[in-house]
Amino acid sequence: MSIVTITSDFGNINYNLGALKGTILSMCDPQPHIVDISNDIGNFNIVEGAYVIGNSYAYFPVGTLHIIAINTFYSQRSKLLLLIFDGHYFIAPNNGILPLLFEDQFPIEVYDLGIYSDQKMFFNYIGMSAKKLFSHEEFNFSSMAPSDLISRISLRPITSGDTIRGSIIFIDKYGNLITNVKKTVFDKVGKNRPFAVFFRHKDPITSIHNHYHEVAIGDELCLFNMAGYLEIAINLGNASEHFNISLDEIIQIDFYEDNPLN
Fold this sequence. Notes:
CATH superfamily of the largest domain: S-adenosyl-l-methionine hydroxide adenosyltransferase, N-terminal
Helix content: 10-25%
Radius of gyration: 21 Å
Shape: elongated
Strand order of the largest sheet: 2-1-3-5-4-6-7
Distance between the termini: 60 Å
Number of helices: 6
CATH topology of the largest domain: Rossmann fold
CATH class of the largest domain: Alpha Beta
């Protein structure tokens, strides 16, 4: 069975999500199985969207079509793209989200699916593309150079000498603060040295844990989550509310030759 995933900022209280699903099911024969990854991405927030889809798509079978509908009307004449990577298909607006997903992994096959100016046209382009992909019809869309994709920002933290400067890119349902600092970057800069994680005028955290319950209930901690991103959390608590920290706030990690608390 063909699989379609949806990641969007549509939410679940209006008709947009239902209209998109209905369009896909009406145009495809046989009908694909549609899976919601998340429809609660923050409004227009392509960084959140890139984090969520980027860390979930690989768990789906090769051949899955991933629909990304976030900040869909980024201009009066928005462009819809198809990107093919590692056996997966991604359809998304050309609003900067695709370079965020694959900034370390170009070149990639990219196709121009057309210009759309309203929601119905956007849904129809998606349904038509899904039909062609799953029925193996001839794909006659124009190819694009990856360099032609709109690129607005980068998810990479800034590294300089013994310092990593990052930001909060996602806050999960539990209030855990996910940063854009990956373990690979942390290890490369840190070289197993003592460190301190600074944020919001708070005493720094100076250790990495493997599990929330390695600290007492209500205590703060840092760990690397399943996707390999540095996370600031409170055991059985809400770090975002406790520290009054929201998206895009800055964190800094300093590395030392000796323990900074000595």
